[in-house]
Predict the 3D structure of the following.
Amino acid sequence: MGSPEEARVRLPQLRLDELLEELQARLDAARGTRDRVHSLLEAVLSVGRELDLEQALHRIVEAAAVLVDAQYAALGVIGPDGRRLSAFHTVGVSEEQIAAIGPYPEGHGILGELIRHPEPLRLAKISDHPASYGFPAHHPPMNTFLGVPIRVREQVFGNLYLTEKRGGGQFDEEDVSVTLTLAVAAGVAIDNARLYEESRLRERWLRANAEITHSLMSGSDRAEVLALIAERAGEITGSALAAVALPMKDTASLAVEIAVGVDSEAHRGLVLPMDRSLMGLAFAGEAPVTSEDVGHDERISLEPPRFGGLGPAVAVPIGTGEAGARGVVLLAREAGRPVFTVTETETLQHFAAQAAIAMELAERRQDAAAVAVLMDRDRIARDLHDLAIQRLFATGMTLQSAGRFIEHEEAAERVVRAVDDLDETIKIIRSTIFGLRTRDGAGEAGLRARAVRVVGEAAPVLGFAPSVRMEGLLDTDVPKEIADHVVAVLSEALTNIARHAHADRADVLLATDGREIRLSVTDNGVGIPADGRRSGLRNMAERAEQLGGRLELAAPAGGGTALVWRVPACKA
């Protein structure tokens, strides 16, 4: 044992060491706080610099994981319904792990707890919370948890989820404070990114409207303009399929004139009913109609199959009000993509309204041009009648009276023939005048409308509505005489299905390329029996041969009958 003097020397030395250690700890804490504040400021600046929304969300998740030293981090975006997650951005989980786990969460369990109660939530062990019900297979183990909501203009945009603090520790109050601060900065960054994205979208819509208006005013073909409307709407909204349908004259149906994107061939030329299609409902109601999953929507007829691999969809009328809808544009995204928001639908409505105005102006211009042509025809007809015919008639009268004074027999005969030729010429001119003053095809329904009417009349007898597709300029390139044969053959084919096929599905395709007309009628019935009556088929074959065409019959692999009737576009 040392002396009392030595003890007195050691005690102050011990107190000094304790004080130095405490001072060092406080300096380390202060340095740590400084470093953390510095990291927080860097994270806020990094997040605030990003104007692309997807990139901004990813930066937020990365920054949150670094700030609280979490192994895993995620940002769940709450969907329009306010109950489920519509997007999920993760950090710390590899692509292979994500693929093994399966679909992203929708907001059940602990994740849903923050959706229902948007307040900070800190847990030492996730499984101890009443809302927890475990993880899916192949999910990495997670225990510690920290979740905070992200608000944008007082609305909850989504939630930050942080798990597994490195080093085996737990998230503390300081972690909560830092994450809440980041969440506030994230809300501002998200708002800025959304505003920037909306401004760019508006700019793209305006450019598309200007392009469509210029195309219409420059005299482009209607099909080209409709294709431009579909393409631009599909590009801007990120849709996999875009289609435009127009009403068919003298029918209660729509015909899909343009379709671009996934399975466009299954849509192009399709005739749609007003009550069993998304486009028909939008046209009849003159209001947008949306679907979360167009492939499994009860309002849409399943036949023919045409929405494979597609999910969210929206149909918007082109024009409304007193003039009524001029058509419908349909957009569909791939399955799993976000549904069309209210803002997107409203913007699409404005775009469609502008397109309708441009279409109306173009139609007015075409009407004015048609009126000018008719007026010119009337002027020509009037001049022919008042000038040419009168002069020819006077010349004929002069020759006829002069013929009595001609003694030479051959010369007299020539004068008589000249008078007869003048009479024939006058008849031709009068016929021309009548043609100039008559509007071609006035009051007659086109082949498209007549074919749709035949299919509609056959539906009650069949017990189902056949699907109908039409392609080409059927009302322009098909002469009336041939159109009459087409309608008769279609009626006969549907009648045969109703009487003999015992089918529950039929598909009609009517198409022309300007050189040939092709009518295809396919059913899934029992087929044509070998010893059955063939009078109806013989009549159809004779009609085809009369026009220089042919009738073909086949048995599809799935059963039933495939009838193809084809003839030249002009009579042989």
User: Anything to note?
Assistant: Residues 26-35 have pLDDT under 50 and may be disordered.
